[in-house]
């Protein structure tokens, strides 16, 4: 049990200490339905209260947020032993959340590459006019 009327920074520091996480670990909470609370993405955790994101008397599962090369490549790992025993659907949900962030990164990277190609490609050459069009242009022009 924790007091939700505290700032997110204090709450996450307390959870890290109680669960023996390293201070540099990024953690978050998942509710029993598999909804990610996104505490690790709160812009100003020193001023935001946990009660804005969490509800009283609900159970949450502590998870480690593992960020890849970019902030978009994220995977999630339960810090609750035997998660599937207590919550049978949640291991699949964590895997799905991890896959979704990787797919988003893949699509953004592909979109960025397409935009970069469009910007760096050579300008289109003027299309040659067909012979019939050239002859009609020549007929109308004074010689």
**Count of DSSP-assigned helices:** 4
Share of residues in helices: 25-40%
How many strands, which pairing sense, and closed or not: the largest β-sheet?
Answer: 3 strands, antiparallel
Structural class: alpha+beta
Shape: globular
Kindly state the number of beta strands: 3
Strand content of the residues, in percent? 5-15%
Characterization of this structure:
The protein has 143 residues and is of the alpha+beta class. The protein is 39% helix and 13% strand. The chain has four helices and three strands; from the N terminus they run H-E-E-E-H-H-H. A hairpin with a 6-residue loop joins strand 2 and strand 3. The termini are far apart.
What's the SSE blueprint?
Blueprint: H1 8-18, E1 26-31, E2 60-67, E3 74-78, H2 83-86, H3 90-120, H4 131-140
Antiparallel strand pairs: 1-2, 2-3
């Amino acid at each position: 049990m924790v007091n939700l009327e505290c700032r997110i920074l204090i709450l996450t520091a307390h959870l890290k200490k109680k669960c023996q996480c390293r201070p540099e670990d990024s953690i978050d909470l998942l509710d029993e339905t598999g909804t990610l609370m996104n505490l690790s993405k709160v812009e100003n955790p020193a001023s935001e209260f946990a009660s804005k994101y969490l509800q009283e008397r609900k159970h949450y599962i502590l998870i480690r947020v593992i960020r890849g090369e970019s902030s978009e490549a994220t995977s999630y790992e339960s810090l609750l032993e035997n998660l599937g025993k207590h919550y049978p659907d949640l291991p699949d949900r964590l895997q799905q959340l991890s896959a979704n962030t990787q797919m988003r990164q893949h699509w953004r990277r592909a979109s960025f590459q397409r935009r970069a190609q469009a910007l760096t490609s050579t300008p289109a050459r003027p299309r040659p006019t067909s012979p019939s069009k050239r002859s009609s242009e020549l007929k109308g022009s004074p010689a």
